Amino acid sequence: MRSADSAHDAAAVWDIATPSRPGLLPGVSMAGFRARTTEFVDLDVVPYPAVTVAVDLGDELLAVDDISGRRQNGSVVVGLVPSGVRGRGRDIECLQVRLSPLVAHAVLGVSSELGGMVVSLDDLWGRDAVRTQEQLRAAGSWDDRFAIAEAALVRRHEAGRAIEPEVAFVWGQMVTNRGGVRVERLAAEVGWSRKRLWSRFRAQIGLNPKRAAQLVRFDHAAHRLAAGHSAARVAAEIGYVDQSHLHRDVMAFAGVTPTAVAVAPWLAVDDVAWAAPEYLSTT
Fold first, then answer.
1. How far apart (Å, rounded) are the C-alpha atoms in residues 200 and 209?
2. Residue range 3-52, pLDDT digits in tens
3. Which of 55, 142, 197, 274 could covalently link to 17 via disulfide, CB atoms 3.0 to 4.6 Å apart?
């Protein structure tokens, strides 16, 4: 169970800013983070049903490491279901953007290539990434930064390729049912074969349908655990076969036990940074 102290300790590390008005682009959430301490920060990244863009705005380099030991410095994009990813740095200041997979497909121009990868934002956006980061660093307030980031996202979304409506529908059903869906039924509903759905979904979302549904269910379970509910209760309420099934799923996604996930620092600040899960948007 997450204690009040763990949430307080995590929140005490960060000054967190959120947009003062709703965004123009559905499926996008943003938050600004500034470390309150000069001590070195080393945090596990808990998988989430969204592609994450972290724009480094501080004087010290933000480093993100993946399970293979590869390190990306500065602004990065973290694909769905990253494995063993950690954020490290000192005096961190960054803008974090969470993109629904439906939006990420158009905004980033890649999906299946990301998978669980961590890649440099410069590699995906080129000169546009450099210009956007310069504007964000020069901005006088977080609201100005949110507006600049939103304008860049809208511009790239309009120029990008929209996701197929069948794939969007399947993702929406997964979210609505918190991962409790059968791929065969969804394929039948959109008039596709299971093989075609598997292929098109994987190409545009970055995961196969089964894995994506498991990710949505895991995220719901993780937040229930962080809210203080027991593993047994969470397993029963969310549709796991039993507590052991929940344990295996959490270990597979996060690499730690349900008890450890419940006190993960990023989850402890989620209610502050992300008022509403952006992946809930299906438009």
1. 10
2. 344 444 555 678 889 998 888 888 999 999 988 877 777 777 778 899 99
3. 142
